[in-house]
Design brief:
With 501 residues, the chain is α/β, with parallel strands linked by helices. It has helices spanning 2-18, 43-59, 62-73, 81-96, 155-159, 163-166, 184-202, 242-251, 306-324, 347-356, 388-398, 436-439, 452-471, and strands at residues 22-24, 27-29, 100-113, 117-123, 127-129, 132-133, 145-152, 170-173, 207-211, 237-240, 259-264, 267-281, 286-296, 332-339, 363-368, 378-382, 404-407, 426-428. 33% of the residues lie in helices and 22% in strands. The radius of gyration is 24 Å and the shape is elongated. The structure holds zinc ion (ZN). Residues 296, 308-309, 342, 370 line the site of zinc ion.
Length: 501
């Protein structure tokens, strides 16, 4: 039923485009009275960018790539047998699609085995729940840990508690993530997952439970990395689905004492190998200059890694392929970088930065796709001031897709983070994240969450900017120095990692 409505909407959209106005999910955008005036982009380049923007919806093969990756490989936890199969698969796929210089560059990765998880509200009312270990968690002793539960709203409340109030208990960080288009709800909630176990352990807790960093209402819990810290005991850490967290929350009614038992059998494995997969569309005039498109090939072990981040791999591969089929081919090289180990340490990003640091001056632009399947609603840049007129022109090219230029403060994605210090010009495309956190990092991260119409809008957006970055003679200069205010504290991961200056 929903599908029928969707295709009706699609046909309606097409009719209205030709009827002189564009209907987007955000509403009606009046047709421009005439072509917008471009400040610096040459007319021929504007024509090519408009052409690829219009072709993307009919010629995109991103959905097929994503279908094949998720059905032929499925989940791709870093360093697992499936991850290694994905590395082989991706190289074959890039070659089939006509990429050059296809290669796998080895990355040493930490590995971890999930094992089994059991959870039980012991009292006041016995109920079984389905916890999911957070990535990297240690196991409980065999037979599990049974203890009184201490419920806190989040890290702030936990920080105010004395050791005596926490020691020996299972700390339950019960922050309910807010649904938001721009992902701000995630930024509020995610620190509980990353730091909850370490902060609770500092106060002597026996284990940490979190309400999933997710907006879903289904029984699946959502995983994600928990960060243990030097000198702090490693305690078991797991997430509960929203319905299970509700169940636990209700037990406290009337000030009752709540006891919980949790058993986890996860464990660390010895380091293993994975690889960054790279493929290129060689530039015809300046092959040494690179437009870098990044996404990560690894995923969590639950679900099929569709939204996180199979779709990013599909988007950037398709964008490069579409541009590679243009006549004449692009002036600069477009490099697709399918990163290893984004979910479990960012070793792929770090390996890339170390390997190519001497070439970073030749990276003329970089962008990453890792925010699910929602439509792109904005574009941010991080370019030299002199290049802002060209970026405003990009905004004009993106406007018919319902995309607004937001400003010159992009910070890139996680796989570009170690490159930030090299001041590579960046572009980023905030996507509608309203539904993303219903599925990501869970068994529900599957292909049915992807709308083909939305996917081709994303491809069109990346294609326009990639083409201009590959073609625009003047380029975007060097990005302004990064002030360190990345939305996630990943930058600390790179301290002491010997990245070249
Ligand atoms: Zn991701």
């Amino acid at each position: 039923m929903a599908m029928e409505k969707r295709s009706l909407l699609t046909s309606l959209t097409v009719v209205l485009v030709f009827g002189g106005g564009l209907v987007t999910r955000a509403g009606r955008i009046p047709p421009p009275s005439k072509k917008p005036a471009f400040e610096v982009l040459p007319a021929a380049l504007v024509d090519r960018a408009e052409a690829i923007r219009e072709r993307a919806p009919t010629e995109s093969k991103a959905y097929d790539f994503l279908h094949d990756l998720t059905s032929e490989i499925g989940p791709r936890f870093s360093g697992s047998a499936n991850d290694r199969r994905a590395v082989e698969w991706a190289q074959r796929k890039l070659k089939q699609l006509g990429f050059s210089n296809v290669r796998a560059e080895e990355v040493t990765v930490a590995r971890w085995h999930r094992g089994e998880a059991t959870g039980e509200i012991v009292s006041p009312v016995q109920r079984w729940v389905q916890p999911l270990a957070l990535g990297g968690s240690v196991a409980t002793p065999s037979g599990g840990i049974e203890a009184e539960v201490l419920e806190v709203a989040g890290l702030e409340e936990l920080a105010k508690l004395e050791r005596a109030a926490v020691a020996g208990k299972i700390v339950f960080l019960n922050h309910r993530m807010r649904r938001s288009r721009d992902g701000t709800g995630y930024r509020e909630a995610a620190p509980n997952r990353r730091h909850g176990a370490a902060r609770a352990a500092e106060l002597g807790a026996a284990a940490a439970l979190i309400r999933s960093v997710a907006t879903s209402t289904t029984p699946e819990a959502h995983t994600g990395m928990t960060h243990y810290e030097e000198g702090v005991p490693r305690i078991p850490a797991a997430a509960l689905s929203n319905p299970d967290a509700d169940l636990l929350e209700e037990q406290f009614g009337g000030g009752k004492t709540v006891r919980f038992r949790i058993e986890l059998t996860c464990r660390d494995l010895p380091n293993g190998t994975s690889a960054n997969v790279i493929g290129e569309i060689p530039g015809q005039e300046r092959p040494e200059e690179i437009v870098l498109l990044a996404a990560h090939l690894d995923s969590w072990d639950v679900g099929t890694g569709t939204l996180d981040d199979g779709i990013g791999c599909a988007i950037i591969t398709d964008v490069a392929r579409l541009i590679g089929e243009l006549k004449p081919p692009p002036r600069r090289t477009i490099r697709v970088f399918l990163a290893a180990n984004e979910e479990f340490g960012l070793a792929g990003a770090l390996t890339y930065a170390k390997k190519y640091a001497s070439d970073v001056k030749l990276h003329v632009a970089a962008m990453e796709a890792d925010f699910g399947a929602g439509r792109v609603w904005g574009m941010r840049s991080r370019v030299a001031d002199e290049a802002l007129p060209a970026v405003r022109d990009l905004g004009r090219l993106l406007a018919p897709l319902g995309i607004e230029y937001l400003g010159n403060y992009a910070s890139g994605g996680a796989d570009l983070l170690p490159l930030l210090r090299y001041r590579i010009p960046l572009f980023e495309f905030p996507q509608d994240a309203t539904k993303y956190f219903d599925a990501y990092h869970s068994a529900n991260d599957t292909l049915d969450k992807v709308d083909r119409d939305d996917l081709s809008q994303i491809v069109a957006a990346y294609a326009v900017v990639t083409l201009v970055a590959a073609e625009f003679e003047d380029g975007f200069g060097r990005a302004p120095k990064f002030n360190g205010q990345w939305p996630y504290p990943f930058d600390r991961l790179f301290e002491g990692k010997d990245l070249p200056r």
